[in-house]
Amino acid sequence: MRLIFATSIAIACCLALACVAGAEEKLAGRATGAAPRQVKIGNGSGALHYPDAQKALDLRPGDTVYIAAGTYSGFSLGNLAGSAAAPITVTCDPQAVFTTETPQPNEFPNIAHVRFESFRYENYKSTVMHITGASHDLLFKNFHITNATGYSFHIYDAAKVFNGTRESTFYNFKWENVDFDRKTNGAAISSSDYAPVSNLKSVLLDFEITRCTFKNFDNAALAFPVIGLDKCFNLQVHECTFSDIGMAASPIGHNVCICGSGYFKVYNNKFTRQWANDVRNWPMKLNALGYGGADAVNRFYNNISWEKRKYPMYEHNVVPQADLDKSSGYFSRTSSEICFNTLYRSRKAADSKSPYCGQLVDVYSPGVTIRHNLIVAPEADAPFDPRQNYVYHLGSGPQPDLVVENNLVFETPAQAGLVDTVEFVPSQSSPARDAATGRVEYITKDHYNHDRYQGAAADVGAVESPDTEK
Ligand SMILES: [Ca+2]
Description:
- The protein has helices at 7-19, 53-57, 321-325, 413-416; strands at residues 38-41, 47-50, 64-67, 70-72, 74-77, 80-81, 88-92, 96-100, 107-109, 111-124, 129-132, 136-149, 153-155, 170-184, 189-190, 204-210, 213-217, 225-228, 232-238, 241-245, 256-267, 270-274, 279-286, 298-301, 304-306, 314-316, 331-333, 336-339, 342-344, 361-363, 368-371, 374-376, 392-393, 402-405, 408-410.
- By secondary structure, the chain is mainly beta.
- It folds into 2 domains: 1-118 and 134-143, no CATH class; 150-470.
- The strands form 2 sheets. It has a 33-stranded mixed β-sheet that branches. A two-stranded parallel ribbon has the order 2-5.
- It is globular.
């Protein structure tokens, strides 16, 4: 990336920064085809407020906005569009940090083809970004958010109601290498409005969250998920780590890592010491724009979960028929496929006020397939009972279209033949080795992105052991 600082602009900018709060470059309109440039904003303190950024900063596709070193309370940026070929980048000096003890507006209306990179929020008692309007094709990369409260990324606009067009949705959002550490009272990434799914407000398409870490979440009063996305179709969460996700006392001690309605692809993640479900999904597909076909199903695979407390890894919930009936035919139920996961040492929640249920999957509605999962030392706080079903729990009675095949349960890691409970690799003599049958066509790699089908067959569980015969 070129960092262009026309000399005269840079000098003007530096002079302005010396004396004017929130200084910015004011430039005459540039000729079409002008080289991309960098625009520096911020004078080291205060809130950065650019509700009409394109015009105010004279930005064109390919340009970069650079936030100067300093300590800022908030950042708002609206009405800004790059292009698919030349997105606009908004980035920070390594010595720039955002901190606040009071909620900030931080509004981001109508932003498209913008990449936000290298942001640091510390002791941030506010929403980081509230995204509204005609916003799409956004990247959030290399964020470090510590000791934050509230919704950090809140993508929600009550005025945005789905009418069958892509333009009436939020689409193509991606978070990459975004780290959260210490978080209370609000989801990290959320669209939830707690309204019925049928209201068609703020439909989300093609969201991706990858290589992010979420740790030390502790919601004191209400149970907030880590990621809470409703009416979200084709959410992909992969290669993320969730750890030490805390409890809420009300109504019962629980939490959720990834929660919402729609259909999600959740794979190659690690979950540990979380109170409750890794995924709790209200399964729906969208009968429009290509989100209602054969791939419009939930897929949860190659995940490892250990020291999980209270609830199953995956919960397939039920969308109320009344909500589907009110969705103008746009929403209908879909299924879930839970394959090749490893579950180790699920545990009771010490302060839980409701029954403990530590199976792999909680099934509340039809259409669940559970294959090739490895369960080791289930319910670590209770004696192992070989007659118990540790694979699935029927939370509201028997369900049709339930397929359960070839899952393995062992009392101890030694019996499962795991090399260790750090990497969870089956040893050469493990009964999980080559114990899968056939192939799941969309699963070609294991948890560590090694070939899924080594040796005579795939191994049961998230990790494929190396084929030493090669
Ligand atoms: Ca194998």
